[in-house]
Write a structure and sequence with these properties.
- By secondary structure, this protein is of the alpha/beta class.
- The protein folds into three domains: 6-86, Class I glutamine amidotransferase (GATase) domain (Rossmann fold, 3-Layer(aba) Sandwich); 95-281, 3-Layer(aba) Sandwich (Rossmann fold), CATH 3.40.50; 294-395, GMP Synthetase, Chain A, domain 3.
- It is 37% helix and 20% strand.
- It has helices at residues 16-25, 39-45, 79-86, 95-110, 123-136, 154-164, 176-183, 189-211, 223-228, 264-273, 278-281, 301-320, 373-386; strands spanning 6-11, 30-34, 49-54, 67-70, 115-119, 140-146, 169-174, 216-218, 254-256, 329-343, 346-359, 367-368, 390-395.
- Strands 7-6-5-8-9 form a five-stranded parallel beta sheet, sandwiched between helices. The chain has a four-stranded parallel beta sheet with strand order 2-1-3-4, with helices on one face. Strands 10, 11, 12 and 13 form a four-stranded mixed beta sheet that branches.
- The chain is globular and about 80 Å long.
- The two termini are 40 Å apart.
């Protein structure tokens, strides 16, 4: 348990995560617990302060702990006064201290054992692998399953970062043909997701057995995963595959989740402090099934290659415009629709590409980005001129809800 712990009790409020992030930014460690928490459980946590998020039905006066009731988002200049003046917090909880504590805890837990990490190349798994490598070095083996469904150059970037800069053992499994074979003729989004997820587990299982006896499985679970999957009797927003304990794939002794109590912005800070390259730390959120759900209809190598090139141009121009850290997620989707166009005075019948960019605080709701017309025009011209088999580009101007961020 951290010093100066603040407890946030969630009474069904949509602001609980935002409040927690605000508390953390002020240098105070906090956790969100469900409204079903008992008085005895609260006492055992020894919080220096309690924030009630939503319509409270608890009388906590007998605990004698400073309490702040919030039915909406707490104002910062209010939150700071409560934490510092009322609760006596000094705001000394930092990512540097978190790294030091985690390294010690990981070393104590693993001892002389071995750990295995499924490295996807996303922010969470990359930072998790880097932290574990810092703690136990060659006792860690990272298995990177290259599904062939990643963005342009990503597989090589992940390998470059982990095969040279960290002491952990790195294994890259090139499994593109396996995944494309399984996806042949499949168009239903949910079926695609299940096939990709199942095949990933099969590949990982095979590689894990080649390695031999491993004591610990490492996962890049982060705090929003835990909250959204339901804390205690809390409401489930969406289930996350990496929440809920050990899988039965391989016989592991225990699970290690060094990022389980962190929000995404905190994970990125740790990545920077550990020396991970920016292209990994600030990588766009990427769905587990990868480009498999950004190819509408059947997934083929031709469509994947077209999408990779177009998506790369879109992301490059957003970075050139200095908007890459302002927009929370942006990507391209290759539709299954072809339309008539004209190139070099000749009729074409090629794919329509969609572009998507959103701003969000929690990824549960999102607003589409009002991108400058000049930027959209430049992206469109570059893609049409540089990528074959695309002759029409559309921009998605739908928020979430009613749409989802991803198309499939």
């Amino acid at each position: 348990m951290q010093n100066q712990y603040v407890l946030i009790i969630d009474f069904g409020s949509q602001y609980s995560q935002l409040i927690a992030r605000s508390v953390r930014k002020l240098g105070v460690y906090c956790e969100v617990k469900p409204s079903t928490i008992t008085l005895d459980e609260i006492k055992s946590l020894e919080p220096v302060g309690i924030i009630l998020s939503g319509e409270s039905n608890k009388d906590l006066s007998k605990l004698g702990i400073p309490t702040l009731e919030s039915k909406t988002l707490v104002e910062d200049n209010t939150l700071k006064a409560f934490l510092y003046d009322t609760c006596g917090c000094i705001g000394d909880w930092t990512m540097t201290r978190y790294i030091e504590n985690q390294i010690k805890e990981i070393r104590d837990k693993v001892g002389n054992g071995k750990a295995l990490c499924a490295l996807s190349g996303g922010v969470d798994s990359s930072v998790c692998a880097a932290l574990m490598s810092k703690a136990i070095g060659s006792q860690l083996t990272c298995v990177f399953v290259d599904t062939g469904l990643m963005r342009k150059n990503e597989g090589d970037e992940v390998e470059a970062a982990f095969s040279k800069n960290f002491d952990a053992k790195f294994i890259r499994v090139n499994a593109q043909d396996r995944f494309l074979s399984r996806l042949k003729g499949v168009t239903d989004p949910e079926t695609k997701r299940k096939i990709i997820g199942e095949e990933f587990i099969r590949v990982f299982e095979e590689e894990a057995r080649k390695i031999g006896k491993v004591d610990f499985l490492v996962q890049g679970t982060i705090y929003p995963d835990v909250i959204e999957s339901g804390i205690g009797d809390g409401k489930i927003v969406k289930s996350h595959h990496n929440v809920g304990g050990l899988p039965s794939v391989v016989d592991f002794k225990d699970l290690i989740e060094p990022l389980r109590s962190l929000f995404k912005d905190e994970v990125r800070k740790i990545g920077e402090e550990l020396g991970l390259p920016d292209y990994l730390v600030w990588r766009q959120p990427f769905p587990g099934p990868g480009l498999g759900i950004r190819v509408i209809g059947e997934v083929t190598k031709e469509k994947l290659d077209i999408l990779r090139d177009a998506d790369y141009i879109f992301r490059e121009e957003i970075a050139n415009a200095g908007l890459d850290k302002e927009i929370n997620q942006y990507f391209a989707i290759i539709t299954d629709m072809r339309s008539v166009g004209v190139t070099d005075d000749k009729r074409t019948y090629d794919y329509t590409l969609a572009l998507r960019a959103v701003k969000t605080t929690d990824f549960m709701t999102a607003e589409w980005v009002r991108m400058p017309y000049e930027l959209l025009d430049k992206v469109s011209q570059r893609i049409i001129n540089e990528v074959k088999h695309i002759n029409r580009i559309v921009y998605d101007i739908t928020s979430k809800p009613p749409a989802t961020i991803e198309w499939e």
